[in-house]
Amino acid sequence: QVQLVESGGGLVQAGDSLRLSCAASGRTFSSYAMGWFRQAPGKVREFVAAIRWSDGTTYYADFVKGRFAITRDNAKNTVYLQMNSLAPEDTATYYCAAGGVPPGPPGSRWRAPGVYDYWGQGTQVTVSS
Predict the structure, then answer these.
(1) In sequence order, which residues have a C-beta less than 8 Å from that of residue 83 and are 6 or more positions away?
(2) Tens-digit pLDDT profile for residues 61-90
(3) Closest Cα to residue 91, out of 126, 43, 63, 128?
(4) Of 2, 33, 48, 104, which is the most exposed, with the fewest CB atoms less than 10 Å away?
């Protein structure tokens, strides 16, 4: 049974940092990309960042470049999202997901929720001003 378990969310002030973790189990994810999405109340789920497990290729939404970083630890089967300079508009539930992506450079397909087969339960991030 595939499981993705997020942790690390919380309540922080604007300008603070948080590191989210996603522990994966239940299958081999070597051919997959691991992604982070977020969803704020009343808004659609949006792509944040993704990393291809096999070679570490990363892909980011434009709005997080320079502030967030996605990394992986193969030995722990865990993906991280380091979030710096948080702002109130980053407030959302953050979800980890795993899905198959084609080889080669990352592209728009990596942003599509439908590409991802497995999802975690989400972790809440709240940023106060």
Answers:
(1) 17, 18, 19, 20, 64, 67, 68, 90, 125
(2) 999 879 999 999 988 999 999 999 999 999
(3) 126
(4) 104
Cross-strand partners of 123: 94
Annotate the chain with three-state secondary structure: CCEEEEECCEEEECCCCEEEEEEEECCCCCCEEEEEEEECCCCCCEEEEEEECCCCCEEECHHHCCCEEEEEECCCCEEEEEECCCCHHHCEEEEEEEEECCCCCCCHHHHCHHHEEEECCCEEEEEEC
Q: What's the mean per-residue pLDDT of the chain?
A: 94
